[in-house]
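Structure in, sequence out. Go:
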């Protein structure tokens, strides 16, 4: 069995059910089989390792403020003006397009204008925007 929704072995189904129960106490950005199966596949359906990895990730997201970064944080002006990447719309099929032109980045200049934490946060913010765009795209194409 592949370990994807609709193609689970009985042991994989059992692991999925147990993971849902084991992490019921945690706030999660998603609560569906696709979400839980990503963690189980990443750890070859080892329930203990998948749960540990999921808990660490959710703690990291909480500590870094990732779940609210789109609303709660604004990059410094230098990063807003000079950071080379981001979402630039959609291709002709409606897929989100992300472009990152780091070859033209004046890294030394930006490091004088922004802190290391700001570089991390701007990347977290961009990735959250990409995930949001991919979710919206998925909702459009799912029958």
């Amino acid at each position: 069995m592949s370990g994807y929704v609709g193609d689970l072995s009985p042991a994989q189904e059992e692991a999925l059910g147990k993971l849902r129960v084991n992490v019921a106490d945690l706030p999660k950005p998603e609560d569906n089989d696709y979400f839980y199966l990503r963690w189980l596949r990443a750890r070859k359906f080892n329930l203990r390792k998948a749960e540990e990895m999921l808990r660490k990730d959710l703690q990291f997201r909480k500590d870094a403020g990732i779940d609210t970064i789109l609303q709660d944080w604004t990059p410094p002006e230098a990063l807003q003006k000079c950071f080379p990447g981001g979402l630039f719309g959609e291709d002709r099929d409606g897929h989100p397009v992300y472009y990152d032109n780091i070859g033209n980045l004046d890294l030394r200049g930006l490091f004088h204008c922004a802190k290391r934490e700001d570089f991390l946060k701007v990347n977290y913010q961009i990735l959250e925007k990409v995930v949001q765009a991919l979710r919206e795209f998925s909702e459009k194409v799912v029958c």
